[in-house]
C-alpha cells in the first residue's frame, strides 16, 4: 500500500475520532450551559411566582374576595411555562405544565433540584427541575414546610441536546471521506520527492556499476536527510570494499613477514637440534652453548607468538571487556613482577593511588609490562645495571582528568629521528633479543584506551629515554565506555596510521 494511501486512510480514521472526542467534550459543556440556563429561568420565574402567591394568600387572609381573585389570576398567568403548585387555605392551586401525579415533590428545595420520573415514581420519562418556598402571612399558624412548589420540565433541554448530538455525529461522519480525500491529495504531493528519490536509487547497484546517487536538494528535510544517508551508506560500502581489498593485501604481506620472523628462530633451533643429534659426544662447554642458544631461540619464538596473540586480541576486543581499574594497582603489580623476574633491576616507584581508568585489564597490563621490559632490556647504564624510575600522577593543569605514567631509563636513549619507527611492527635493533612487537603492542593498547604516548629525553639531562603515557581518568566506577572509532588493524599497520602521537 502506498504511503499516500496509508496517510489518507489514517487521517480518515483519526480525524472523525478526534471530532467525536472533541464533540463529546463540547456536548458536555453545551448540556451544562442548557441546564444552567434552565435553572436561571426557574429562579427568575420563582421570584415573580413567590410575590404573586404571597399577594394571593394575604388577600385570602384579609377576606377580600375580589382582590384574591385578581391575585389568583396573576399567579396563574405568571405560570404559563413554569408549573406551580400552591397549598392555599382550603384549596390547592395548580397551573402551568402538569407533572406526573406520582411525582413526589421534595420537602426542601430552596435551590433548584432535579427529579427523574423513574427515580420518584413517575412513568412519563420526563425529568423536572423543582424549587420550593414557604409563603407566610402575618396570621399564618400552619406548620413549617413549603407550601409553594415551582417546577420546569426538561423537554426543551432534551430536545436541544438531541438535536445538537445529531448534528455533531453528522459532522463526524462527513469528515471521514472529506478528510481522506484531502489527506490523500496532500500526501501524494508531499511524497513526490520521496518517490523521485526512490526512482533514482532503484537503478544503483554497487556490485555492477560505479554510478552513485545524484540527489538535488528538494527542500524537504526528511527526503534530503534520507538522500544523504543513502550517499553515506554507498560511500561506506565503497570504503569497506576498499578496506577489504587492503585487508587481503596486508594479510598476504603480514603472512610473508610473520613466516619470515618465525622461520628464523625455527631454522636456528633446527640447526642446534641437528648439532646435538650428530655430535652426541660434544664437550660440556659446547653442549651448554648449543642448549643456551636453543633456549634463547625458543624463548624468542614463544615471545613472538605471545605478542602476535596479544595484538590479535587487541584488534578483536569488545567494549564489554572494559571495566573500571585502579591504574596504580596495575603499575604496582607490573613493577613487582619485573622485580621478581629480574632481582638485579633497580626500581624507583612513585605512584599516586585512586586514578581510575576504564580499561581492558589484560591489554593495559601487557602495555605496562612491555614498557618496563623495554626499559630493562634497552635502558641499561654503561655499567650494565638496569635502573628504572616509574612515576604515576594526575595532570596538575586544568582540563579533562588525565593520568600520566612515565618510565625513565639510563640507556642510550632514542634519537628523535627514530622515535616514530620504534612503534612499527617487527622493528628492533640488531642486538635486541625481543620480537620487535613490544612497543607496537604498547602503542596499540594506549590508542585503544584513548590515550597517547610520547618518547622524550630525560628531563634531568642524564642519558636515557623517557616514555610518557597519558590516559583519561574516569573517576566513576559505573561509567559506560565505548571503543574509539579507530582502525583496529595493528597487526598490519603502524602507529602513525592510527594517528597516535609519538
What's the topology here?
Elements: H1 3-61, H2 65-77, E1 83-88, E2 91-95, E3 113-115, E4 128-133, E5 148-153, H3 155-190, H4 192-202, H5 221-278, H6 284-316, E6 322-326, H7 327-341, E7 346-351, E8 356-360, H8 361-378, E9 387-394, E10 402-408, H9 438-448, E11 452-457, E12 465-472
Helix pairs in contact: 1-2, 1-3, 5-6, 6-9, 7-8, 8-9
Q: Can you offer a commentary on this structure?
A:
The structure is a single chain. The chain is 51% helix and 14% strand. By secondary structure, the protein is of the alpha+beta class. Among the domains are: 3-163, Beta-Lactamase, CATH 3.30.450; 319-498, Histidine kinase-like ATPase, C-terminal domain (Heat Shock Protein 90). The strands form three sheets. It has a five-stranded antiparallel sheet with strand order 2-1-5-4-3. A five-stranded mixed sheet has the order 7-9-10-12-11, with helices on one face. A hairpin with a 7-residue loop joins β9 (387-394) and β10. The longest helix has 59 residues, at 3-61. Mean pLDDT is 76; it is low at 119-123, 476-487 and 498-502.
Whole-number radius of gyration? 50 Å
* Beta-strand percent range: 5-15%
* The CATH top-level class label of one domain: Alpha Beta
- CATH homologous superfamily (4th level) name of one domain: Histidine kinase-like ATPase, C-terminal domain
Average residue pLDDT: 76
Number of strands: 12
SSE succession: HHEEEEEHHHHEHEEHEEHEE
- Which class do the helix and strand fractions yield? alpha+beta
Amino acid at each position: 500500500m502506498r504511503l499516500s494511501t496509508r496517510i489518507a486512510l489514517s487521517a480518515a480514521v483519526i480525524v472523525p475520532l478526534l471530532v467525536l472526542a472533541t464533540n463529546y467534550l463540547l456536548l458536555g459543556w453545551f448540556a451544562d450551559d442548557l441546564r444552567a440556563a434552565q435553572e436561571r429561568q426557574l429562579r427568575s420565574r420563582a421570584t415573580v411566582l413567590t410575590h404573586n402567591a404571597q399577594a394571593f394568600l394575604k388577600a385570602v387572609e384579609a377576606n377580600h374576595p375580589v382582590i384574591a381573585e385578581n391575585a389568583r389570576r396573576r399567579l396563574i398567568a405568571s405560570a404559563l411555562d413554569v408549573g406551580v403548585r400552591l397549598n392555599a387555605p382550603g384549596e390547592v392551586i395548580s397551573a402551568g405544565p402538569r407533572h406526573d401525579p406520582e411525582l413526589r415533590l421534595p420537602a426542601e428545595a430552596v435551590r433548584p433540584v432535579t427529579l427523574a420520573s423513574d427515580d420518584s415514581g413517575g412513568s412519563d420519562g420526563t425529568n423536572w427541575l423543582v424549587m420550593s418556598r414557604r409563603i407566610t402571612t402575618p396570621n399564618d399558624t400552619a406548620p413549617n414546610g413549603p407550601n409553594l412548589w415551582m417546577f420546569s420540565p426538561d423537554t426543551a433541554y432534551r430536545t436541544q441536546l438531541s438535536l445538537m448530538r445529531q448534528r455533531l455525529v453528522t459532522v463526524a461522519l462527513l469528515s471521514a471521506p472529506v478528510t481522506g480525500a484531502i489527506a490523500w491529495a496532500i500526501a501524494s504531493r508531499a511524497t513526490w520527492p520521496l518517490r523521485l528519490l526512490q526512482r533514482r536509487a532503484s537503478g544503483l547497484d554497487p556490485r555492477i556499476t560505479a554510478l552513485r546517487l545524484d540527489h538535488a536538494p528538494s527542500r524537504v528535510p526528511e527526503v534530503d536527510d534520507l538522500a544523504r544517508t543513502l550517499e553515506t551508506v554507498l560511500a561506506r560500502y565503497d570504503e569497506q570494499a576498499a578496506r577489504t581489498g587492503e585487508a587481503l593485501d596486508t594479510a598476504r604481506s603480514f603472512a610473508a613477514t610473520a613466516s619470515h620472523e618465525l622461520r628464523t628462530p625455527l631454522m636456528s633451533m633446527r640447526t642446534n637440534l641437528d648439532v646435538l643429534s650428530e655430535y652426541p659426544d660434544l664437550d660440556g662447554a659446547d653442549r651448554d652453548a648449543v642448549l643456551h642458544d636453543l633456549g634463547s631461540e625458543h624463548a624468542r619464538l614463544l615471545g613472538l607468538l605471545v605478542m602476535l596473540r596479544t595484538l590479535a586480541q587487541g584488534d578483536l576486543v569488545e567494549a564489554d571487556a572494559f571495566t573500571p581499574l585502579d591504574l596504580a594497582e596495575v603499575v604496582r603489580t607490573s613493577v613487582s613482577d619485573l622485580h621478581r623476574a629480574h632481582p638485579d633491576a633497580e626500581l624507583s616507584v612513585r605512584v599516586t593511588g585512586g586514578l581510575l581508568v576504564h580499561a581492558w585489564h589484560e591489554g593495559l597490563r601487557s602495555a605496562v609490562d612491555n614498557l618496563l621490559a623495554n626499559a630493562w632490556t634497552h635502558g641499561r647504564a654503561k655499567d650494565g645495571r638496569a635502573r628504572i624510575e616509574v612515576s604515576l600522577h594526575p595532570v596538575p593543569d586544568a582540563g579533562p582528568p588525565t593520568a600520566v605514567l612515565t618510565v625513565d631509563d639510563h640507556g642510550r636513549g632514542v634519537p628523535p629521528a627514530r622515535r616514530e619507527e620504534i612503534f612499527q611492527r617487527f622493528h628492533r635493533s640488531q642486538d635486541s633479543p625481543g620480537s620487535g612487537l613490544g612497543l607496537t603492542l604498547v602503542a596499540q593498547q594506549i590508542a585503544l584506551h584513548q590515550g597517547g604516548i610520547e618518547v622524550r629525553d630525560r628531563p634531568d639531562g642524564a642519558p636515557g629515554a623517557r616514555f610518557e603515557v597519558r590516559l583519561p581518568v574516569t573517576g566513576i566506577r559505573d561509567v559506560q565506555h565505548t571503543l574509539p572509532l579507530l582502525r583496529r588493524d595493528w597487526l598490519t599497520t603502524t602507529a602513525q596510521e592510527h594517528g597516535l602521537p609519538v
